[in-house]
Write a structure and sequence with these properties.
The chain has 341 residues and is an alpha/beta fold. The protein has 2 domains: 2-137 and 278-322, 3-Layer(aba) Sandwich (Rossmann fold), CATH 3.40.50.450; 141-275, Rossmann fold. Helix content is 40%, strand content 19%. The protein has helices at residues 15-30, 42-46, 54-57, 81-91, 103-114, 139-160, 175-184, 198-210, 248-260, 280-298, 318-322, 330-336, and strands at residues 2-7, 33-37, 49-51, 96-101, 119-123, 163-168, 188-190, 216-220, 232-237, 243-245, 264-268, 304-309, 312-317. The protein has a 7-stranded mixed beta sheet with strand order 3-2-1-4-5-12-13, sandwiched between helices. The site of 6-O-phosphono-beta-D-fructofuranose has 12 residues, from loops. 6-O-phosphono-beta-D-fructofuranose binds at residues 9-10, 102, 125-127, 169-171, 221, 245, 274.
Amino acid sequence: MRVGVLTGGGDCPGLNAVIRAVVRKGVTQYGFEFVGFRDGWKGPLEGNTMPLGIEQVRGILPRGGTILGSSRTNPIKIDGGVDQIKANLAAQGVDALIAIGGEDTLGVATKLDELGVPVVGVPKTIDNDLSATDYTFGFDTAVNIASEAIDRLHTTAESHHRILVVDVMGRHAGWIALHAGMSGGANGILIPEVPFDLDEVAGWVESRFRSHYAPIIVVSEGALPADGELITKDQSLDAFGHVRLTGIGDWLASALEDRTGKEARASVLGHIQRGGTPTAFDRVLATRFGLHAVDAIADKDYGKMVALQGTDIVRVPFIAATGVLKTVPIERYDEVRPFFG
Ligand code: F6P
């Protein structure tokens, strides 16, 4: 059997660990051959491939990014895109595909599966917002990076008696802000699921200063003020219809300065959260996902995504993962409220 592998969407620490596991087990246990498709769905769309064997995956376990490259290309939006993909898979002699990606990449996989393309999915996103899996790999790494940044920002905030706003990734879901804010001891956490009241946040800041400590407020890039709009760089959309989020941290720092009269600074962590080597947790999760994805291919159990449930890796239909986003439940947010202010 010849299997194509691609990685789509935003890159994420652990992608290479999945690729390595897929190839190592696929070659040694099942005698599969592999071909890498470059840059997400752009690869099969344009027939752009690279060799993918034991040789190519040697030494990549701890490496961030993806040796296959990635993109946010959406073949469904391109006229004749699906037919082009089918033709290129046939031309390459590919019997089945492993698509490693988040909501958008697996959304395309869902569509292709419905159209008869044999595909198995592996969930990936630092945002941790895919349903049906307890965690996606990359999330733990992002949380650790953000948490370490918060530790560092505490000391500078205190030296200067400043408010420090930490702007973290999370377009629709506040998991990174929630976990990094909890582990870093933030005095306020703002997430997309719960629109925030600026007066309340200013109140937390003032109460923190009264106790002679400097406040740290962690904000998800997709958080929005209760009486305002999403803060975006511009209104341009990517191929999956997402606006480019940026600016909430600076906006919030300046609004808090105006309200409290205290100096504020914003630190935007951005792509630092997605780069570099994965944590041990993410390496193990990504490796297990890869091993189980190749088993699903061997079983011809297509249209499924591997998922972590408890400590088990299971297979779920694509739609269970992509139908509804896994956002932060209000009870999880309420749990951390005692630390605000
Ligand atoms: O893929 C998830 C994510 O990291 C989001 O948290 C963030 O909004 C987005 O990607 C950033 O996208 P890009 O890398 O294309 O700027």
